[in-house]
Write a structure and sequence with these properties.
Layout (H helix, E strand, L loop, with lengths): L1 E13 L8 H4 L2 E19 L3 E6 L4 E6 L11 H10 L6 E8 L9 H17 L5 H15 L7 H8 L3 E5 L4 E5 L4 H10 E5 L7 H12 L3 H22 L3 H15 L9 H12 L4 E4 L7 E5 L5 H10 L3 E3 L3 E2 L4 E5 L7
Parallel strand pairs: 3-5
Antiparallel strand pairs: 1-2, 1-13, 2-5, 2-6, 2-12, 3-4, 6-7, 8-10, 8-11, 9-10
Helix pairs in contact: 2-3, 2-4, 3-4, 3-5, 4-5, 8-9
Length: about 350
Amino acid sequence: MIIRSRAPLRISFSGGGTDVPPYPEEKGGVVLSTTIDKYSYASLIPKQEPIIQVKSLDFDVVAKYDVDRQLVYDGELDLVKGVINTLLEGNGDGFVLFIHSDAPPGSGLGSSSTMAVTLIGLIRQWLQKPWTNYDIAQLAYHVEREVLGIKGGKQDQYAAAFGGFNFIEFHKDYTVVNPLRVSPIILNELEYHLLLCYTGKTRLSARIIETQVQGYVEKQADSVAALDELKQITIDMKNALLQGRLNDFGALLHDAWINKKRLAKQITNETIDILYETARKHGALGGKILGAGGGGYLLVYCPFDQKHIIAGELEKVGGQVVKFGFEQQGLQTWEIDGSRCRF
């Protein structure tokens, strides 16, 4: 038997930052996001011997661990270890685990959180646990933020678990995922207008997030105002999307980017500024860097008849345009007969 799991990566349109504690506990945060057809994958093959073998297909890393020992966090496969330590303590069964992702950590597409959700979904399927998507998202948050101490917000875990277009509310003691019933025509049109561009490098988000949190905790006027404004922009974007006012949606992306940059100076850099200014110069209504900033992917809203021109100009200045589509499904798990497959 082989158990497989996959979860989609996400695009966050607006609200990132309002999901990072302590803002949501004090004021309530909101995020508008969707998942796309890029994924994190995991496969588990149960074994009789008490050994865990992990193979990262992206980084060509193979590691072996004893089942009956707590795994030590040493910078190698710590996310995998965190999930195993948290969910499989005392489980005497061994297994081989394969993992890989369509985007590296630091890409701004939520790949680390998506991998955590993928792994927890895999274990749910293997052990037949009754965990809901809310449970899985919260477990992924617990592993990343509390067990491993990785700085970040709450949105990525919920986006990966639920999938699709969601307006997510973050409060002190609970999170609510509101699936949006957007017309297929509007979704097709939005996808037609959006362009995804890789900036050429990934980034470490922890320092950016630390600066952002520090600004809010110290009640720096600009940081607090930027987060409050992002919250309102997110609500306005949700309404524009549902009503099919897509040019307004594109313009609000620009407003979101202006306010996002107020949170920390590391959010942008010369490379990002050149790419964004190039897109705007050739007709883009708006856009933003995805994730914490500093690198990764730039999302741009283009007039449909200028999209090909903007794509060409971005590539001239070093960007890499990437094809993508929206994904409506969230976490998925399944089992197959391993005797029928090569692995």
